[in-house]
Amino acid sequence: MATTTTTTTSSFCYSNFQTSYSKRNPNSSSSSLHLLRTIPKSSLRKLPKENLKPKPKKKLVNPLTNSFFSNFSHQIRVDEIGLEILSIAFPAALALAADPIASLVDSAFVGHLGSAELAAVGVSISVFNLVSKLLNVPLLNITTSFVAEEQALASYGNDISLGINTSDQGFDDTSVLQQPLGENKKPFPAVSASLALAAGIGIAEAITLSTGSGSLMNIMGISVDSPMRLPAEQFLALRAFGAPPIVIALAAQGTFRGFMDTKTPLYATVTGNLLNAILDPVLIFFFGLGIGGAAISTVISEYFIAFVLLRELNSKVLLVSPNIDGRRIIQYLKSGGLLIGRTVAVLFTMTLATSMAARQGPIFMAGHQICMEVWLAVSLLTDALALAGQALLASGYSQRNFKRAQDVIYKVLQIGLLTGVTLAVILFFGFETFSRSFTTDPAVLDITRTGVLFVAGSQPITAVAFVLDGLYYGVSDFAYAAYSMVFVGLISSLFLYLAAPVYGLPGVWMGLFLFMTLRVAAGFWRLGTRSGPWKLVWSELEQKNN
């Protein structure tokens, strides 16, 4: 038995020796190999039996957690990808901040007309913004991803037009079709489809808001004999004419974001808002149009912004693609429907939180509103980071450059976490100063002091949650983004409904913190399990580990 084992072992080693030598010396002569064959097999080193056993496979390490949490201080250094993220995010943050500032300017001028007019504008803007969040923002996010993917595929060669992959796994570079172009302009089906949908959505919104302003005021609880009713209807009906340019401008902004150009939208937004600030006092006071003048000046500025963006876009691409496909429209509608459902889940949870805070009384509601205003204002920074991550990830993913896609994921999450920690420190020490800019009521300020732990402490979690949203969109993972948000919203809403009556306002803030925490958990679970489109992102790293 021992002799048989020894002979087998020697034969095994001799065979391996020959194979190894041949691989290392492919150009060796046949005479050399003949000399090797003359070596007696018995003279070869006899290996113990256990050495012949195959080595166990190396255990795979989760690539996300391994790279994200290890050597954080080393990896947070500013590199090429970090600079790309910041160069996209900074102008985007300024553009995002321009619209709230413009609303404050409008409110300041209208406030001189009277409290009823100011309240009427507030109600009308709330209705208008609700419609915008439900329909316009999903179109903006989808356009950014689709255009970034098409732009990345187009960079493989000059003068190409892209086919469409209607699956949920993003684009397939094998569907690229050759298409001759002229005047150095490229047709992008995603751009043409987005602008066409934007025009249709904008017209539908304009008709609905203008003809249904009275019904919408009834839904908002504004009675017919209220002093706010007439000015609110007038303002909303006039603002409705600005719906088409708003949606078209958002589609154009999404296109520029897909091209990783956030400076052009910033330029258009700032100049349009400056025009609005100039027209406001002229139309409201000089021409005596009152609240109608405020609406007209806003609509004019919105058409101006859309014109500037379309003019710049027309110089780069064909606005009407010669090969626009019905499948592209279907893809937009399918993804848009998912994101609308996601938006409804977010709005329901946030509205329930506001409702629970309002039940605590006016003082508690005022304090809660101040906390939420600050919380939402600082979120603009992380929204901009999410936008940058979305565009860069969509580009790398569509080109199958998964190493770059992984680097973008790590870097944008790290910058997001660092931004959240920085904001937490700033708000913890400066929140009382911010609160005093909203009110001087001691009772309300006492409430805001209790909310500083929520506003400041939730910043790291909130920042990462928003960045994860951008990563979903970057790989067109719209289905998971929608379904996970509905699930998270249901759990958080149930907690809010049960905790707020028991713990009061702290229960509301705990519910909102749970809402953001579950969003982060759902995001890391999706990335960590490498399911759906994320399987491709980690495929290269898995092969190396194997």
UniProtKB/TrEMBL annotation:
GO molecular-function terms, A-Z: antiporter activity; xenobiotic transmembrane transporter activity
Membrane spanning stretches: 236-256, 282-310, 331-354, 374-396, 408-431, 451-473, 480-500, 506-525
Alphabetical keyword list: Membrane, Transmembrane, Transmembrane helix
Similarity remark: Belongs to the multi antimicrobial extrusion (MATE) (TC 2.A.66.1) family.
Transmembrane among keywords: yes
Protein name: Protein DETOXIFICATION
Organism of origin: Aquilegia coerulea (Rocky mountain columbine)
Pfam families: MatE
Subcellular location: Membrane
